[in-house]
Design a protein that fits this description.
alpha+beta, Aminopeptidase, eight-stranded mixed beta sheet, 8 helices, globular
Length: 191
């Protein structure tokens, strides 16, 4: 089994457009900050905006040769050497038990190995406790909880802000390295 990240702008148009269906899936939308149904026009405009954007990069995640999700970095800050990241799995990706663990491990490595970032941030809705817990296992530290940070359908949802320093990852990654080596072949990536 291998995990690969391919820049969304480098994949075929069918895969680019299929991402909209993944993102509109209720299982994904309920964990997003913006949970509205994305139209085809909105999606095309988003893809077009990535072309000249030096603040964001998005990747299709492949398990072997199967597209299983999306990951990306946003809010790229070249001066402070930091960025934020997130990922989600499509229906095929959700069928592989433990796949999120491997994507998180390899993508954190990818970010710190291929960019000059010193800090990696993430924001997760309190309604997604499994991901909050997984980030903590990987060494993300809780920076703050934004109480009632998001209002949706008359519900107030807390937002967990988590961060990891590259120096901490260099220590924490060792405990995951052996597990990943036994299961996966190293990823091939495309920026």
């Amino acid at each position: 089994m291998s995990i690969n990240f391919v820049n969304i702008l480098d994949v075929d148009i069918e895969t680019q457009m299929e991402v909209r269906n993944w993102r509109n899936d209720e299982r994904i939308r309920k964990y997003m900050f913006n949970d509205h149904i994305i139209t085809e026009e909105e999606h095309k405009n988003w893809l077009k905006s990535l072309d000249d954007n030096n603040k964001s990069l998005f990747f299709i995640v492949y398990k072997d040769d199967i597209a299983v999700g999306v990951t990306g970095i946003i809010n790229i800050d070249y001066i402070n050497k930091s960025t934020s990241w997130a990922f989600y799995l499509n229906e095929k990706g959700l069928s592989f038990l433990g796949l999120g663990f491997f994507i998180e491990y390899y993508f954190i490595n990818y970010i710190f190995d291929n960019f000059e970032f010193e800090k990696l941030n993430t924001e997760v809705l309190a309604t997604n406790p499994k991901v909050i817990k997984m980030h903590c296992k990987f060494g993300f530290k809780e920076i703050k909880i934004e109480i009632n940070g998001l209002k949706r359908n008359n519900e107030k949802i807390d937002i967990y802000h988590q961060s990891m320093l590259k120096t901490d990852w260099e220590i924490n990654s060792k405990k995951f390295e052996e597990i990943a080596k036994r299961v996966l072949t190293p990823p091939r990536n495309s920026v």
